[in-house]
Every structure is written in C-alpha cells, then in structure tokens.
Please model this.
Amino acid sequence: MFAYLIRRITVGIILLLALSLMTFVLFFATPVDPVRFACGKNCTPERRITTEKSLGYDKPTVEQWALFMKGVVAGRQFPADPELRASSPEIVVDCARPCFGYSQFNATTVNEIIKESAPISISLALVALFIWLTLGVLFGLLAAVTKGSLIDRGIVGLTLIVFAFPTFFIGTFMLKFIAIKWRLVPLPRYENFVDGVGPWLLNLLLPALTLALVYLAGYVRMTRAFVLESLSEDYIRTAKAKGLAPRKVLFKHALRAALTPLVTLVGLDFASLLGGAIITESVFSFYGLGAAAVRANRAYDLPTLIGLLLLAGSFVIFANIIVDILYAYIDPRVRLT
Model:
C-alpha cells in the first residue's frame, strides 16, 4: 500500500509541474499584451517599463515559470525586479509560500484573494457533496431494489425532470420563493464556520441544494445501474445460495462493487466545484473562487487568473489521488497496478 501511495503522489507532482508550465506557455503565447492591461489607462512608457519589471514580465516565459514555482515552494517578494526592491524598500510586498503571485489590480497578493474566496467555495462544495451523494446513493439503491415498479419509475423520472432545469433557474426559484416570498430560511449570506455551525449551514442550504439537485439525477441513475449490474454477477448469486441475508448481500457485496465507479465521479465533480460554481455563486451573491475568476478575467488580471487556474488544477489532481487511494481501499487488487 505504501509503494502504491508513493507512485500516485509522484505522478500527481509531475502532473502539477506539467500543468503549471503549460499554463504559463499558453497565457504568455497569446497576442494580447499583459503589461498593457496591468499598466492601466494612463500608461506612460516609463510606467510601462516599471510595471513590466515589477511583475517580472520582462523575463522569458520559462524563467517566469521557474520563479513562480520557486515562490510556491519558498515564497517570494514583489516587485519581482531586485533593483526596484532595493530602490524602493517601502513598496516591497512579502508573499509567503505557497505564493501564487501578486495582483496589480487589487494591490495585494493572489494568496489574499484565495484566502477570502476559497472558504466560500469549499464550504459550498462540501455541503452540496453531502446532499447529492447521500440522496443519490439512497434513491439509487431504492430504485434498484424496486426495479420496474412505480417507485423506481417515479424516482428516475422525478430526478430527470429536476435535472432538465438549468442551475440559474433552480437557484433563482429557491431564492425568490423559499427565502424571499415564503421566508422559510433567511436570505443566504456566507457565515464563517468558526462563528457557528448552525448559521454557517443554514446560509449554505439553498445554494448547496441548488448544486445538489443538478448532480442528483446522475448519481441516482449511476447508482441504480451499477447496483443492478452487481446484483446480476455470479458471486452475488453464490452469496444468495449460501443463505446470506438480502440486506448483507445488497450492502456488503453489491453496493461495495458499485462504489468504485461512483468514487471517480465524486472526485471529479467535487474538484470542479472547488474550482468555483460560478453560476450558483452569482445567483446567491457568494463571492467564492468562481466570482474571483470572473472578475480577474474581465480585468485581464493575469497573475490572479494563473493562480486560480493552477489552484483549480491542483484540486483536480489532488482529488484523483484521493480517488486512487479509495480505490485501493475498496478493491485491494488496484494496489497491484
């Protein structure tokens, strides 16, 4: 198991390095001049040169990538040019590791932007994941064991109807009716977890439920299909022939075999939500990573865009590592691959 973990972590680190290098190459290979946007409207030639040196855009792309990765590991200082730091020590900004860059538009490090936005997206993703995974597996199991019945058709049909509605419609409906008209819950606004679990969870309920309903239909159908497939296997018939209780056959054997593909879906979907649920965050005015990415894109805030993109990519790679570890736990044969 230890050797398996080392292999997966090593592959993850290599993928992170490749992702970061490819990001830098793609961003700086575009014909758009990032210095012009960072310099602002009243950009004089002297100010342009200062901005270019301050952000390190005067260096080759590979050297910029090397400095960025060094900042992630050990931290760095801004302005990036040593001469500017020496001549104006009062403007020097220390960016602690892992440093994702400095935003000229916000006059702060990208770390600070992530620090403000990430807890919102992480909280929203966690609550939504719990809702859609719990309900998806339960309803999928119920549909599988009642295959062909009215309950089965009702569950699958209802989830498909909900899935047909776009995210912005579900979110707007919940906000307008449940929160504003019927006042069943207060108007959602993000509350910090440390200020109380109750207010934190209550304010996340509507946006998390909006996301969960979108994912729920897929998990119900996938759980139903995987459980039915597992129930048709020979080892399930053998277990039944040995006299094992139906509940034990369903949960210990059939469901465990069905969890392997579900774990893959959970890892990828959760990682994508951590990168920012842009539409849901916009509907409920939750300024998470998705909203931060939209603002950075509109202003062409290149350091922030690069930092957020690499963070989102890191979420996906890290989620895949977790999925591989769960694979090894669910099915020990995976450790041999």
User: Anything to note?
Assistant: The chain has two domains: 2-111, 116-336. The longest helix spans residues 110-145.
